[in-house]
Design brief:
Blueprint (H helix, E strand, L loop, with lengths): L1 E3 L9 E4 L2 E2 L3 E2 L2 H17 L8 E5 L6 E4 L3 E5 H6 L3 H16 L9 H21 L3 H10 L2 H4 L7 H17 L5 H9 L13 H5 L4 H12 L10 H18 L2 H7 L7 H13 L3 H14 L4 H13 L3 H14 L4 H13 L3 H17 L4 H13 L3 H14 L3 H14 L5 H15 L1 H13 L4
Parallel strand pairs: 5-7
Antiparallel strand pairs: 1-2, 2-3, 4-5, 6-7
Helix pairs in contact: 1-3, 3-7, 3-8, 4-5, 7-10, 8-10, 11-13, 12-13, 13-14, 14-15, 15-16, 16-17, 17-18, 17-19, 18-19, 19-20, 20-21, 20-22, 21-22
Length: about 450
Amino acid sequence: MRTLKLCSALLAIWMFAGVAFAQGTIRDAEIEGVMRQYSNPIFQAAGLVPENVSIYIIADPTMNAFVTRGQNMFLHTGIILQADSPNELKGVIAHETGHMSGGHLARQSDAMKKASRPMLLTMGLGVLAIAAGEPQAGAALLSSARQFGALTFFTHSRIQEASSDQAAATFLEATGQSGIGLLKFYERFSFQEIMSGAKRYPYFRTHPLSSARIDSLASKIYASEYANKKDSDAEILELEMLKAKIRGFLTSSQQVFSRYPDSDQSLPAKYARAIAHYQSASTKLALEKIGELIEIQPDNPYFNELYGQVLFESGQAIEAVSYHKKAVELAPDEPLLQLNLAQALVATSKDSDAKQAKQYLDFVLKREPGNSFAWYQMSLLHERAGELGLAKLATAEQAYAMHDYGRARGFAMRAREDLTPNTPQWRRANDILLVIAADPQIQEFLRKSRKGSPGH
């Protein structure tokens, strides 16, 4: 068993052994970028502000997608792999958006939300432990959160499902897209309706399907002027590249080489094999194969990112910097690419690089203030510069982002003691303490943690 990371998956860790997964959220600039490309027009058509909707990619081979209150959308990697076309995946996203815009979640019980909080906290502690250099402890914590993949957050009624279908068709038409992908997705899995709940895919356990629903949806979709609009070749290739990347990182190298044999010289096959070599610790071969990808598409930021990541993880941080810089130049608005570059710059231990790293981290944290790994890198920079109060504050921010409230409180108290009173940094440390003290759920968790600790 070993710990894996997607190229830019610096925050979320999952454990892999053969084809067994421990579910967890993954971060990857390429995958997230495409999902945003699919989703944002649909969110706008639904009257939602795209920036207010969070999309999470779950490393889980099962086919599932769901939304939770607070405008959060979760997509399993399994549903991305199961989608035969971009249009199918867009259809699923449009359907889930229908649940959000229809207010279906507001009518559900808060019980599951409360029940999921300890699980999410456990996952956060696991990632924090790994980031702190305790991989075994982190793995144990993540393993204890495995019920995440089995939890049924919301089970929608057939009325809500039909309503979301109609909304999805409306959103797709409003964005000039066909709804046939969603229809084909349902038709491919219509047999799930007659299976027991235990045998159904998770998606259809929470989204009951029926022939009547399919027929009703078909009537609306085929009436659209965009019904016969097809995905472009570029869009199809883009999805195949994502599938290759996911398989390369989340399945065994043997499975990758079986699905993508050397005889397959397509770009997705080359991508999957290059990642598989990287995952199997064949650094020299991985760099050779990624180099070939860069020759084919020198302006692909994610190929450059991957090359830099392989160099970085093989102990060549200085050499990795130029590739991460190239990735950032090609995709300057991607926080995760800037985070990778900042990490490489921090690792060089050069004073000149530290200044650049801070600029990139400032960009990341402005876009993602809850990015715990960015706060961790920032704490390293402040500590190296002798700015101990700021280092403690950054550590408090990291812990707070990971929901490790006891640790956040401890470091915020120390930071407040070291920082000049009434400065913005001092006030932020104080804010963390006030928020923790004012939240009854956090206080209850801290009380239970103290009771469960040695000596109690």
